[in-house]
Amino acid sequence: MTIYQMTYIINNLFMTYVLYRFLMIFFDSRKTGRIVELTFYCMYFIIISATVFFPTPPLFYVICSFSLVLVLSYLYNGSFIRHLSATLLIYATMFIVEETVMFIAGYQKLDAMIPVRFHSILGISIISLASFGAVLLIESFKHLRDSEHIPAFYWLSILFIPSLTIVIIAMDVSVMGDKNDALAVFNMISALAINLVVFYMYDRISQLGRIKTEKELMQQQNNYYLKQFSIMDESQEATRAVRHDMRNHLASIGSMIHSGDTEGALRYIERTSDFLKPGTAISSTGNRTVDSIVNYKLTDLPCKGIRISYHASLPNDLAVEPFDITVILGNLLDNAVEGASSSGSADPYIETTIEYTRGCLLICVRNTYDGRLNQSDGHLFSTKKDPSAHGIGIKNIKAMAAKYHGNLDINYDDSVFEASVLLFV
């Protein structure tokens, strides 16, 4: 083994770490365990390191390394478009850095099918350091993991630009050669700058999408509060009306009792009690956020033939942010209402239990459903045709639960779906 080959393998080990840091910019949760993740990175390291011992044509190396990066991206949760765009952006950045250093070092004429004899120890070390510098720079973008909020239209530019820069640089180093070194280097640096701008665009679009989602959620929360205030106003109005005529009501009841019409008095009392019921809330725990969400989501369902069972026991000053409880409880109830409404059951129902005990908050929602689930890669998604109408989904419920060191547990059979969230507060 030559000194160059040893240096290449050592630098490739470092570049494997750089690639890991790159992927962590885009993805925040694994599909697999740590051991599987480490195994795949080791396979990547071994395969790429092996190319130093064989005459590898550049085209084969590009296809192989790009495919391996794409495979590694699938160790993490995300949509296909997210995996592809992340791989393109990562690979374009690393490719341009590598080609720029090689071109400056004198390897100015490349052929897609002729193996490159790049044996510069200093060159591969500079490539590794420059790639690591790019990672450190891009890590300053804080919203790249929020790409679920990016509209489909914007993905076109995110996919197109890095792909185009790879083609342009490949043409530069294979066609231009040493005819105009300064122009070629300028093109490469410009391509790198363009990809950094795409990273910035990606970050900003993700941030704006998240802000839009949060605004929509805040609007939902405001609607919950307005519904709760409406229920409270109706109850107070009914109480004021009865209180205003209380003397007359009492006189009528007393007259009936004195005349021996006990049944009439009881009916009168019952009618008076019914008069106080308009706006009666399903939830009256004293926790405004919980009461507002539950009453907004469930109050009208009995009129639609959906049976409601509700039990809650929790303090007024629950140590959970209103925004977080809105995400969790609002989405659980949305999914339950959707499931029960389309279940086709003779007795559709939603059972909700919210209990707080010794620092643990349990939210459990059970409902009938039609037995159909939309699953992909072990993850559940709504069966609605319009994904934008789902709220912000199960993934965000999990994220909020993780914030409180809790978890989301889902169980189901052919007719009943149950989702339970445990929070430590």
Q: What structural keywords apply?
A:
425 residues, five-stranded mixed β-sheet, two-stranded antiparallel ribbon, 7 strands, 11% strand, elongated
Description of the structure:
The chain is of the alpha+beta class and 425 residues long. The chain folds into 3 domains: 3-215, no CATH class; 245-280; 282-425, Heat Shock Protein 90 (2-Layer Sandwich). Helices cover 61% and strands 11% of the residues. The protein has 12 helices and 7 strands. The strands form 2 sheets. It has a 5-stranded mixed sheet, with helices on one face. The chain has a two-stranded antiparallel ribbon with strand order 4-5. The radius of gyration is 31 Å and the shape is elongated. The chain starts with a helix and ends with a strand. The relative contact order is 0.07.
Secondary structure elements and pairings:
Layout: H1 3-26, H2 34-50, H3 58-73, H4 80-104, H5 121-138, H6 152-176, H7 181-244, H8 246-258, H9 262-275, H10 288-298, E1 307-313, H11 322-341, E2 349-357, E3 360-368, E4 374-376, E5 379-381, H12 393-403, E6 407-412, E7 416-424
Parallel strand pairs: 1-2
Antiparallel strand pairs: 2-3, 3-7, 4-5, 6-7
Helix pairs in contact: 1-2, 1-4, 1-5, 2-3, 3-4, 4-5, 4-6, 4-7, 6-7, 7-10, 8-9, 10-11, 11-12
Task: Summarize the model shown.
It is built from 12 helices and 7 strands. The chain has helices at residues 3-26, 34-50, 58-73, 80-104, 121-138, 152-176, 181-244, 246-258, 262-275, 288-298, 322-341, 393-403, and strands at residues 307-313, 349-357, 360-368, 374-376, 379-381, 407-412, 416-424. Helix 1 (3-26) runs parallel beside helix 5.
